[in-house]
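By way of example, what follows is a protein record of this kind.
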Amino acid sequence: MKKQTIIALAFFVSTFSFAQKKELKMAEKAIKASNFSEAKAALTQVESLIGSMDEKTKTKFNYLKGVALFANGAGNNDDVEKSLKSINKIKGAYGKEIKALKQNMVNSFLKKGNDAYEAKDYNRASSNFERVYNMNKKDTVYLYYAAASAVTVKDYPRALKFYGKLKKLGYTGIETKYYAVNKKTKKKEAFPNKQLRNVSVKAKSHIKPTEEKTDSKKAEIVKNVALIYQNEGENEKAIAAYKDARAESPDDVALLLNEANLYYKIGNTKEFKRLLEKATEMDPKNPDLQYNLGVTAADSKDIEAAKKYYAKAIELDPNYVNAYINSAALILNDDSALMEEMNSLGSSKADDKRYDELRSQRQVIRKNAIPLLEKALSIDDKNESAATTLMNIYSALGETDKYIALKAKME
């Protein structure tokens, strides 16, 4: 009786083995015919038996599953991930086949990534560039492309993850570009690699071979990290990231201004002003920096300093409309103070005298503001702020003709 049981069991196991081999052969045949859906169906039939497979059969199953799911680049995202997992389980077998399959995958992911990027489908581009990197961790440039694509669609958590990896890897993005001058056109041409450039020079179609290093992307990466943190409202992390970025690129004025603006946003005007002053030292001929320092000084009630900064902005750029308008506003601030005092006066003889004095002072102040506002309008004749203020001054000074003319022009 025992003998019969053993024989029956052996027959049962051999039946399993036969079924496995049959389905694997069907899958293999379907793959050769590029019928990947049929191959997947055959593999699904045998997958439940994987626990009883020997190592050789299991290896073959994983290889065929990887090929079928990838479907020569036609597999969906989920299938591609499963395909990669399947072939990564294989150790020491199908070496040439797996190498060729992985290269096919890389080429497919790269094409999909580039096509998606050109079509402005940045989510899909980012996913495919990430896959290229995962297939070969030496291709760090594709991790950079994955991060940049994620930033474009404001997928900041994903971008931060990639930028964090790049930072740990010490990625700089510096590349060597190869050039030579075309003898016919006399123009400098770029080559994809040194070998092709040298072949062209040797063939005497090109002369004057040169090599150039591209700029490092390290500062750009830490700057993007800072901007992401700032956008997400994580100001402390953003400040720390800006300091890292400026350590990488100390001469980047735009970077310094980004940090300054963050301090302004969180209400730290002292640090904002300090960084702006540093920026003006680095870029003394930048009128925007002088103007912004003027705004900061005005906010801090340092009127004389504000006047100097606005005057410097106008000196550097005689057409700086807002500098003229803000300069006029500083002058008219005194007018408001005088008006308050006039409204507080009584009806005594002394008060009447003081009232006349203040009114004369107000007229002088208003007249001093007129040239600045007229200059602003001569540069930008549609500037409503300058026009409205100027019309009010004309009206207050009794210059009716000028008031009517300006009003008609604005209307």
Q: What stands out?
A: The chain is about 75% helix and 5% strand. The longest helix spans residues 2-32.
